[in-house]
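Backbones bend. We report:
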Amino acid sequence: MEPFESEGLFWLPEAEEQQIAGKISFTHSEGVKLYLIGGFSEFQSFTNLNDVARFPIIHGVAGKRYLTLQDCTRSSYRIEFPGMLREDYRAVTLFAGQTLLTSDDQHFTEVTVRFNNLWDWTQRTIISQNYTFDSDSKLTSATLTLTPLETEEHEIAGGKLALISRWNIPGGQQQDRGFEQDFSLRLTYDDPVDLAHIRNDVATLQDLISATSDSACLPTDISLWITEESDGSTETARLNLYGQQSAQSMTQKSNSVEFLLHLDEIGGLPAIGRWLDFLRDRRIVLGLALSSRYRAMYVENKFFNAVSSAETLHRMEFPNHVMPTADYKEFRDLLVGYVPEEHRRWLKEQLAFSNEPRLRGRIKELAEFCGLPAVLECDADQWARAVTNTRNRMVHHDDRKGPRASNAQFYWMSESLQLLVLLCLAKFCKFQDGYLAKIKASDTVDLIARRVRELLDPKKANDSA
């Protein structure tokens, strides 16, 4: 979603004849904002300037497109010399296209999304090169051939997933002409879905590319298709979606991106389909794990989020008890029965969660499940103990258990926990064979592994240095 700004006319759906001039803008940091030269309050019964004006829908036309602003709240009301009313509004969502939406409960049949890193991640190109050299190894000719790629499609739960390539030759004059190619992912749904479903799917696809690289992936264009009934016939309209995403980067963009895994290395479109199916109901895991990828934060927050992500994933996918529940209940009742009756309720409450695995056991089980020790070349129990001690020393503030962790410890333990979550999700989603070796061979992971080993055994690291 590229930022834009445009002037136009705006009105309320029930009062189209009362159009007001204004300016609409969208930025990633501020979202959708509307600045009116005038105001809808002139036609509404607001008693004073402090009333909060809200409208479910505002319509407009600007930049040769119809606009539908949803969930609008007045952010500013003022009267400027010589008595001109001005109002500003914020909208949660903006739809731009060749049709106006009349309801805030719309359902869509298709979404196509482009990401800033998608082309590099797919490793697809429509260009083939051929060079001719003479006997002196001097280049005599070079030929570039552009061969359009066929759309790749794959059936997924509830619809179809496609990878679409696009190319064009811009420029009017021969000397100004260039070449552009781009890729997008398209989801077509068997049954229309609401906007919340669309946003969740877009964020899940976005997080897949972010998780398999070392920087945040961002959507650059989101297009929706809606089917409408008009005069007894069915028409399909395309709309561009604008609005702040659930995973919107507030960090500085990187000029270069290293990919831990590319599209074919995870298993192509079938792997994306399994990722969507698995993560649709587990967004909290990725939200916690990748939070520091999208937004700058203190290393303590980065560490706590990474710990929470791993613990949440374990709670969702692994048994949440140490002893079988029935056996533990019998054991707990036996213990409670030995104390005086006036203390039994208190003891029972203290033992309520005592059959749950501790953090150390949870992350150790995750590490052994996904192969993290082989990637980091460390002992699973030693690593899990280090993570747990880092968390406990900060949470409990007990000087007797050692000094507080350093910023370096927080940072590199966080990185190893984020890697743990990625490796677990890769296994759950059945990435293509060989992904562990590919991840281990990356420069980013090699650095994480060396730093973690230094933290686990500083003496050995110093001796090797």
